[in-house]
Amino acid sequence: MPLKVLILGGGNGAHVHAGIAASNPENEVRVMTLFQDEAERWSKALESSDLVLDYTDKDGKEKQFVSKPGLITKDPKLAVPGSDIIVFVVPAFAHAQYWEALKPHMEPGMVVIGMPGAAGWEFQAYDILGDKAKGITFFNFNTLPWNCRITEFGKRVGIVGFKDYFVGAIRKGSVEPKVDPLKAIQQSLGPRPVCTAYGDLLGMTLTYTNAFIHPSIMYGRWHDWDGKPVSESPLFYQGLDQASADLLSGVSSEIVAIAKTISAKKAGIDLSNAKHISDIMLEFYPEDIKDKSSFLRMMQSNKAFEGLRHPVINNEGGGVSPDFKARYIWEDVPFGLVVQRGIAEIVGVPTPNIDKIITWGQGLMGKEFLVDGKIKGKDIGMTRAPQRYGFTTLDAVLGAA
Ligand code: NAI
């Protein structure tokens, strides 16, 4: 029996996952994208073409995955029933509609995977799925296994880089999963990256790295910006300065303190996956980091980060200005730092560095999340903070209430 893989989304990552999974006849691949007419356009594109993924292999040779996913639809009745694994490969701001669409068709024993789910993924799932969440196994990863960009919608995608290692966490439901979650995701992704899973699901929400890396570095570079355009977009990681690295490390230490406090309160919860950012970097990029002498040097010398720049907008009069509308603020603050700060509040851990960045970020967005030291601002409805769902106890955050 083939593994029935349902991929949610229609962007870069969804194309790559669909293409790789469908290139193995042991997988039966369906894609569900709810966005506009994307499903129709993608199906039509594949009437006259295969889905081709271009990449450079480790031996330096140009290679391709060539395949055709079995079904691309926006209809959950066609897509969901019978699925073994259901994989979210779509930005966090679009997740709610997918949970709503999945809900009527969810079967106990299904495995739902966030790739990445981003912070608070499971809170939204519990809120929307209600009792249906009980029989489901949740498996969240920290990121996407590839850097990738569509070159021709529906037909062709470039995989710029593969991660070598891919780390996630599993929380089993009350019903045994239909398939082994780790074996199944590995089968759908092929041999690269090597997938592992350990620790509680909450560890992924706490250490969803984009959530705190991006806003911390944005804050470090731009919080005292004088408003004058700069000549070019600064390098995001290679151009990191000591103060920004210290801030990022400080934010990460606050998150580790949240995890330690939770572990002290709940002996059975394994949050060994909620590590400091320097340890996470060594775990994800053991071969890419050239200089491990300090945290700053690790970030500056990571091959996987080479050439990545700050999001900017071009100025008519020349030069560039920071793009404060970028995902690094608009996604990573409400679907990241605010969630982590909300958990800190529930367990009473002070987070002065996180607070400073949220205060700055919400100001840029013209939103209110953190007010008078509490996650209670008028805009928490656009976040996935636990408070937004009425989860105000540790048991609720852990899915036990
Ligand atoms: P993407 O930017 O390609 O996603 C676009 C897709 O999202 C659209 O095709 C559509 O299906 C959906 N979408 C967009 N606007 C929507 C709306 N208003 N309502 C409903 N659906 C909408 O995303 P990508 O690149 O596939 O990334 C997926 C996740 O992986 C993101 O969270 C991203 O931050 C993360 N990631 C991506 C990397 C990459 O290289 N592409 C690398 C590392 C992480």
Automatic annotation (TrEMBL):
Write one Gene Ontology MF term.
Answer: oxidoreductase activity
* Gene3D superfamilies for the chain: N-(1-d-carboxylethyl)-l-norvaline Dehydrogenase, domain 2, NAD(P)-binding Rossmann-like Domain
Please name the Pfam families in this protein's record. Answer: Octopine_DH
Domain Opine dehydrogenase stretches: 199-364
What protein name applies here? Opine dehydrogenase domain-containing protein
